[in-house]
Structures are given as structure tokens and as C-alpha cells.
Amino acid sequence: MGYITSDFKTINPLFNNPHVSTIYASLLRRIPRVKFERERIETPDGDFLDLDFSRVKSNKLVLILAGLEGKSWSLYSRAAIRHFNNNKYDAVCMNYRGCSGEKNRLLNGYHMGASDDVRTTLNQINQKGIYQEIWILGYSLGGNLALKYLGEEGESLPSTVKGTVAFSVPLNLKASNARLDKWYNWHYLKWFMLTLNLKANQKKRQFPGKIDDYRGFFMSGSFTYFDEYFTAPANGFSSVEEYWQKSTSKPLLKNIKVPSLIIASKDDTFLSQDCIPHLEVEQNPQLFLEMSKHGGHCGFIRKFFEKVWWMEERALQFIQEFKQ
Question: Could you give the 3-state DSSP secondary structure of residue 293?
């Protein structure tokens, strides 16, 4: 079975608190800037995606899929890109629709199940024939996108795509939404809803009459409400239940045909037990589950002022182990 004993341990006891590690990793860590080369690609539905490359003239590539509001200048993205560049991998971050600094053209945008954009990105990259191997590194929402894409492709996966490492993945969207609504996550929820509601209000003005049931900036205080009245209708789902059902990657894990490591911490306040894929890992030899005692949500910080994060070290270690 694909259970891996985690070697992650905090050195500074402050990071035994999941809130400290989560907030420090996402907002307070100092990461040097990365020089990107931007390429814009068109999507089949008439929108666009901005891809930010950091190249070291390699034939190996890591695709970074960040978490909510995912973009290339997030701390997670920059940390991963620098580490993989330093180890002779080209890197590219797929900025989600509306997250690259320019509004996307359509009402629909990115969401937890928007794996078509991952497919479009990889198809465009593969058409150039530069890379012999591509690995996907996903954080939270990005991890769900990576796993969903691999599960959808199954046997049809391009031969260049070798596998994924996914951190803190909300594999059950409905349960994750309910968990985020708990009192101990109120500060995260308020922070997330600030930017999400701002974008939703802009969409409501841009496309009058399309999402009239969404009541505006100060009315959406939870992911459940936001998904029901904005995400689902804006992206063509008949209901929030359909959105949750069709966007979660968990039912598709059985179809994954390449090595895929799922890493979670036991103290992650975002994820319920339904997000831990024990049965799926037992049934699919390509899946590996690694759980640490501490780490919060995409935290995994050992001490202050680390030059390299454990997450990127662990991802590279896994990739090198399974490299073909």
C-alpha cells in the first residue's frame, strides 16, 4: 500500500500551531523575486491564460498550480520555482483566469474543478516539443486540479506528464466548505472572501442579469453561499451540489496511472477526514499518501528564515525517486 511515513518535523515549537504555520507560509515568508517570461495562450472557449515561465534551458519542466487566487508571484509559486530552477528544471506557473493582473473575458473563471485549463496549458506546452518530462506540483486548490486532470486523462495522459505532488488537497469540496465555516477558521474565511467577493461584484457589473441571485460584497460570508450563488451559476452548473460533485477529484483518483503523492497534515484546520483518500490509496498502486503530525494547511514550516521549504525539498525528492 502507498502509505509513506513523513519525515517532516518542526524545529521551532511555534510551528506546532497550525495557524502559525499556515499564516507564516502563505503571507510572511520572505522569498526572493523570480524573473518570469510571460506567454499568453488562448482557451477553446474564447478566453485566455497567462503562463509565467522561469527557464534554465532544461528539457524537464515542473508546472506549478497554486492555491486560491493562484498566481506566479505567490510565495508558494516563487519558492517552488526557485528550488526547481536551482535543480535544473524549467518551471511554469499557470495563472488562473482573472489572477494574472488582467480580468478574463468571460463570466466563468477559475474554480476548484477547472481542470480544462490545466489540459489546455499542457497541450500547448507539449505542442512545442521541448520537454521530455513534465511534473505537476499543486497546492490546495491546485492539488485538486492536478489530481482531477490526471484522473480524467487516465490512459490518455500525454507521455511527457510523469506525475504529481499535491499538498493539502480538499478532496471533498462540500466537507471542506463546511469545515472552513467553523469558528476557528473565521479569519481565513474573511480573508478569502475579501478578494473573491470583489471579483464577483465586478463580474456582476460586467454581465448584468447573469448572476442576479448573488447579493453582493457584504452578503457573501462563506464559501457555501459563494459557491451556491456565484461559482455554480457563473460556471454553468445547475446547482451547488452539481458543482461540488463534478469538481472534486476524489472519485477520479482510481483512474490515475502515474506516480502521485498526496501530502497532508493531521492538524490542517481546512480539511475534514473525508479529504484523506485512504481507500483510494489502498486500491491504486500509483497513489501515495504521506501524513505529518504538524504542518497546517500548506504550512510545513520547520523554522524561521529557511532558505528552502520542506515542501519543495519533498516534491523534488519524490520526483527524483520516480523519474523514468
Answer: coil
